[in-house]
UniProtKB/TrEMBL annotation:
One Gene Ontology molecular-function label: tryptophan-tRNA ligase activity
Organism this protein belongs to: Streptomyces lancefieldiae
Record's protein name: Tryptophan--tRNA ligase
Binding residues for L-tryptophan: 135
Enzyme class: ligase
Reactions mediated catalytically: tRNA(Trp) + L-tryptophan + ATP = L-tryptophyl-tRNA(Trp) + AMP + diphosphate + H(+)
Subcellular location(s) per record: Cytoplasm
Length: 332
């Protein structure tokens, strides 16, 4: 079986619709066909300030949401990144292989550091794409299911894998991004020119999966569209409406063309009312399942402990080989 790896940050508490449609939904599907490793990336979360108590709670909450979304610990390996120390260890080696200019070109870093004030951004934020490289290479992943915003980091991963293999000898699998066109980028409902994001969205434009269902419905109904009234998929001229159609289509399995036909001659109100209903039907059971996992923290922690053990077995092997290739003297 080919291998996949991906991760999600335990920063904001609730996952948002972009996380689910852009990434987690694919993770659930891929556990059937791939040897799948999925993690809650707490090391990435501390690249921006985190409250320790919140971080701990949000890490469990992220794992609970992943299980609620359909990850099955018998079909995939689910773990917490900091439970596997090899991530930080391989990241150091990769840091030493990355050019300063190369890292400076990462657009996610540029956006995130600009938001904090460039001087205040941590060095960790600067090198987090390189930690991500290590995350992926440790598992010799063939594919990495992520949203469009991560494409540049996967490119960096490929470059560094090839660079290392070229310099020291064949060590790492060169991975590919697994990005589905329809859901590669879900946009903020209030500002369809920016991606829906844990850290950058407007509260009204962000669909949190754990919001009260009536809040979710309200956010859908107040989504920004345009002054025209035609319901048509046209990302250039109608980004707001197109975003709603993409979401609707993915959640229901209906083709976009079918939806355009269904709503021909009807106003945006009808589309939004129906989509709000579709969304509530999706988030209500998701919230319940998440709560069930949270109510049983012992079971949750046991799943994560077993996941970490399985992940470590793979990660330790890759790290040992990497250290050897680099020329580190083995510890006796
Ligand atoms: P932040 O803005 O703090 O980076 P985030 O909203 O991007 O948070 P992450 O935990 O960084 O959340 O991302 C988890 C996964 O969700 C990644 O694979 C990312 O590509 C994907 N993702 C995030 N936002 C979107 C979006 N708007 N559309 C599609 N996929 C997304
Ligand atoms: Mg992100």
């Amino acid at each position: 079986r080919p291998r996949v790896l991906s991760g999600i940050q335990p920063t904001a508490g609730s996952f948002h619709l972009g996380n689910y449609l852009g990434a987690v939904r694919q993770w659930v599907a891929l556990q059937e066909t791939h040897d799948a490793f999925y993690m809650v990336v707490d090391l990435h979360a501390i690249t921006v300030p985190q409250d320790p108590k919140d971080l701990r709670a949000n890490t469990r909450l992220a794992a609970a949401q992943l299980l609620a979304a359909g990850l099955d610990p018998d079909r995939c390996t689910l773990f917490v990144q900091s439970h596997v120390p090899e991530h930080a260890q391989l990241a150091w080696v990769m840091n030493c292989l990355t050019g300063f200019g190369e890292a400076s070109r990462m657009t996610q870093f540029k956006d995130k550091s600009a938001k904090q004030g460039a001087d205040r951004a941590s060095v960790g934020l600067f090198t987090y794409p390189v930690l991500q490289v290590a995350d992926i290479l440790l598992y010799q992943a063939n594919e990495v299911p992520v949203g469009e915003d991560q494409r540049q980091h996967i490119e960096l991963t490929r470059d560094l894998a090839e660079r290392f293999n070229g310099r020291f000898g064949e060590t790492f699998t060169v991975p590919s991004a697994y990005i589905l066109k329809e859901t590669a980028k879900i946009y903020d409902l209030q500002d369809p020119s920016i991606k829906m994001s844990k850290s950058a969205s407007t509260p009204k434009g962000l669909i949190n999966l754990l919001d009260e269902p009536k809040t979710t419905a309200k956010k859908v109904k107040s989504a920004v569209t345009d002054t025209d009234t035609v319901i048509r998929f046209d990302t250039e001229n109608k980004p707001g409406v197109s975003n709603l159609l993409s979401i609707y289509s993915t959640l229901t399995g209906a083709e976009i063309a079918e939806l355009e036909e269904k709503y021909a001659g009807k106003g945006y109100g009808a589309l939004k009312t129906d989509l709000a209903e579709v969304m509530v039907e999706f988030v209500s059971p998701f919230r319940e399942r998440t709560q069930q996992y949270l109510d049983d923290p012992e079971t949750l922690d046991a799943i994560l402990a077993k996941g970490a053990e399985k992940a470590r077995a793979v990660a330790a092997q890759t790290l040992a080989r990497t250290y050897d290739m680099v020329g580190f003297l083995p510890a006796k």
